[in-house]
Structures are given as C-alpha cells and as structure tokens.
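Supplementary notes for students who missed Thursday's class. We covered one full example, reproduced here. Read the sequence, then the structure, then the short commentary at the end.
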Amino acid sequence: MFLIIALLVVTLGYVASCVVWPFKACRTCKGEGKFRSPFIRAVRLCGVCGSTGLRPRAGLKVWNAYRRLHHKNRRNR
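Structure (token representation):
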C-alpha cells in the first residue's frame, strides 16, 4: 500500500513539474543556444535546439504524442 502511494506522489510531482517547467536546457549547448570556438571568438548556433537553448522534457513529449493521437482519432469519426 505504501509503495502505491509513494509511486502516485512521485508521478503527480513529476506531472506538476512538467506543467510548471515544460522545457529543460539543451544538453548540447548547455542552454545557451550557441557554441563558442575554443581558440577563435567565432560563434556557431546550436542545431539541436534551434538556437533557443531549450528542449522539451520527456513528460511534454508524452503529452504531445497523446494529444496528436487523440486529435487524429477524433477527426476520423
């Protein structure tokens, strides 16, 4: 019983954090959206995050996939 309650609390906590913070910092550019060359002052934009510095969290990806599937199934009726 305790394990079920603990799992429910952790799950609801993760869902709440996904609602408050749906994006995380890009791991490739460390949230800056650009790279600096180590020797020259050249700047290159991050192609992974589209130079925003943000990437969607796993919970947001699951929610978006559910919404796409739900929308697709509602249109086919």
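Commentary. The chain has two helices and four strands. The helical segments are 2-20, 58-75. If anything here is unclear, bring it to office hours.
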